[in-house]
Design a protein that fits this description.
Blueprint (H helix, E strand, L loop, with lengths): L13 H11 L8 H5 L10 H8 L4 H8 L2 H5 L2 E2 H4 L6 H10 L4 E4 L9 H11 L3 E10 L4 H11 L8 E8 L24 E4 L18 E6 L6 H8 L7 E6 L14 E2 L5 E6 L2 H10 E2 L5 E8 L6 H21 L4 E7 L2 E6 L9 E7 L8 H8 L12 E5 L12 H8 L6 E4 L1 H9 L14 E4 L12 H10 L6 E3 L22 E4 L9 E4 L24
Parallel strand pairs: 1-2, 2-3, 3-4, 4-5, 5-6, 6-7, 7-9, 8-10, 9-11, 11-14, 12-15, 15-16, 16-17, 17-18, 18-19
Antiparallel strand pairs: 12-13, 13-14, 19-20
Length: about 550
């Protein structure tokens, strides 16, 4: 290829290319809870091993760089991908190309590893070279010898490993095999370890190993036969430098006497994630920990309406309220989601910008068909009712329609909504519109005095002309707080074409939409301008572009 016809990308500096290739080897989400638990399976073409291999085939310059960089190959030991092949030749070639560099070994989180012995052999042969291990192994009960082999390898010292997650399960029912805590994991010698995911009974929390106190990231899975809440909390006393802590599983705690007598300070904690089925266990953990006000906070739990005392929920919500106030004072959040239904309460900070808080509280009712009572929903909402949300300009609001299990004049709902003084844009679903229209005699339409834009993000199941959209718009207009923009760009009208010419009477309302799911550019129409035909047949195959395209 002549100099004149060379692609500009071929002129990139070697150091820049190296940086790009290195970024392409990074695992998705790093050592976060999401990386260790997400069920999302990355397509083969997008996995780091595939990307590096294909990059090495682009041109000679790229191939020379990649083949001359053994560290790149050491970072892409994708066992799930390699075990799909008929032979181990490609895996052996990848290991050969790594030339003694650190190895970063990973599997999918939930896909069954079809050849667990391949992983066993790899760990056995290269244990001292392993820098990171993130593996989920599911075997049959008749393969308990594999679990035993893995267990023996894990008891060997490893001075190199920095990040460790190995989850062993029997594939039939998903139970975790019970493993002895002795001899100790890594023979008590893992001086580089900073991230640890404990999904099996590897640890003696009553007498932790020396490496436990140097951790920065810790995820413990609670099971009735492994770790108890008092054990976990007392162990945290020894790791004040912890930055990320996750606790998940099913564990009902009632032994108050066994809890630490004083609060446990984690002054450097940046992220706290609790995914525990019992709300009072969550409360126990939160009441014991003292964390920075700007710590990211995520709680997923359940409240059994019939089995648990209403006072328990009230006590738990007081704890949630304390954390919510710290969060709202520490961050000037601008985007939130509130979803209330008979079966679930959900609050989340959805600010899309870097540096924003990751704050979420999700409480679901019993899986056995029980629904929250109005008092339960009001109590949960009290966790946020008087928090500072005066900077919020966008909210996703999901409310149930008429027959809702929270009253429109519920004091906690009114206080929460009234505090959104800067709200300009609301994302909603059809039932939210129906809620406001059904109770328009009770709700002050000026409750969001600055609201001017509606975004519909879930397609209604019926003709929109018969729904609550037009009555809602009229309600706001008649109160002199009209909606100026209706954003329908998130809706796909392909399966349910809509005629929206009924909106013509809403003068000065701008409707924005996409004509089809394939269309990238938006179209818009100013209602009352005399050409409502452009709003007819949205999603129909014969819908033709108009001069209002943007």
């Amino acid at each position: 290829m002549s100099q004149e016809t060379q692609s500009p990308i071929s002129k990139l500096h070697v150091e820049l290319l190296w940086s790009i290739f290195l970024i392409n080897t990074h695992p998705r989400y790093g050592d976060t809870f999401r990386a260790w638990t997400s069920p999302t399976i990355v397509e083969s073409k997008d996995r780091p091993l595939t990307v590096i291999r294909r990059s090495s085939q682009v041109c000679k310059k790229w191939r020379d760089i990649i083949l001359g960089a053994p560290a790149l190959w050491g970072k892409v030991i994708d066992i799930s991908l390699l075990c799909r092949l008929a032979t181990e030749d490609w895996m052996n070639e990848v290991i050969r190309r790594s030339r003694g560099q650190w190895l970063y070994i990973a599997t999918d989180n939930y896909r069954v590893l079809t050849k667990p012995l391949t992983l066993v052999k790899l760990l056995d042969d290269h244990w001292e070279r392993i820098r990171a291990l993130k593996a989920t192994v599911r075997t049959g009960r008749d393969q308990s010898h594999i679990v035993e082999q893995l267990s023996q390898i894990l008891r060997r010292p490893n001075k190199s490993i920095q990040s460790f997650k190995l989850e062993l399960r029997f594939s039939l029912f998903g139970e975790r095999p019970i493993l002895d805590v002795e001899p100790p994991l890594f023979a008590n010698s893992a001086p580089s370890l900073t991230a640890f995911h404990c999904a099996n009974s590897f640890l003696n929390l009553d007498s932790p190993s020396p490496w436990f106190f140097q951790l920065r990231t810790l995820h413990i899975a609670l099971e009735a036969w492994t770790y108890k809440i008092p054990q976990v909390l007392k162990a945290l006393e020894g790791i004040p430098a912890l930055e990320t802590f996750t606790l998940s599983g099913e564990n009902f705690h009632s032994d108050v006497e066994a809890l630490p007598k004083n609060s446990i300070a984690l002054p450097k904690l940046k992220a706290l994630m609790l995914n525990i089925n019992y709300i009072m266990t969550v409360k126990t953990v939160l009441d014991t920990l003292f964390i920075p006000p700007d710590c990211n906070f995520m709680v997923l739990t359940k409240y059994m309406c019939q089995a648990e005392d209403a006072l328990d929920l009230s006590d738990a919500c007081q704890t949630f309220h304390r954390f919510a106030q710290k969060y709202s004072n520490a961050y000037n959040t601008t985007s939130i989601l509130l979803s209330i239904s008979p079966a679930e309460f959900k609050f989340r900070d959805i600010c899309p910008f870097p540096g924003a808080s990751d704050f979420a509280l999700e409480v679901s009712s019993s899986p056995f068909g029980e629904f929250f009572t109005p008092d339960c929903l009001s109590c949960l909402l009290s966790s946020f009712a008087d928090c500072r949300f005066d900077k919020v300009d966008y909210m996703d609001l999901h409310l149930p329609s008429s027959g809702a299990r929270i009253a429109p004049d519920d004091p906690n709902l009114v206080r929460f909504l009234s505090g959104l003084s800067s709200l300009t844009t609301m994302g909603l679903i059809e039932s939210t519109l129906e809620f406001f229209v059904s109770y328009k005699s009770v709700i002050d339409p000026r409750i969001f005095s600055n609201l001017n834009t509606l975004m519909c993000d879930i397609m209604p199941l019926r003709d929109m002309s018969a729904g609550a959209l037009l009555p809602f718009l009229k309600w706001r207009r008649d109160a002199s707080v009209p909606i100026r923009k209706l954003d329908l760009t998130e809706l796909d009208f392909t399966d349910l074409p809509q005629d929206l010419d009924f909106l013509e009477e809403m003068a000065d309302l701008t409707v924005v939409w996409c004509a089809s799911s394939e269309e990238v550019s938006h179209r818009e129409y100013l209602c009352g301008s005399g050409n409502p035909g452009v709003l007819v047949g949205m999603g129909s195959v014969n819908t033709s572009p108009t001069d209002v395209d943007t």
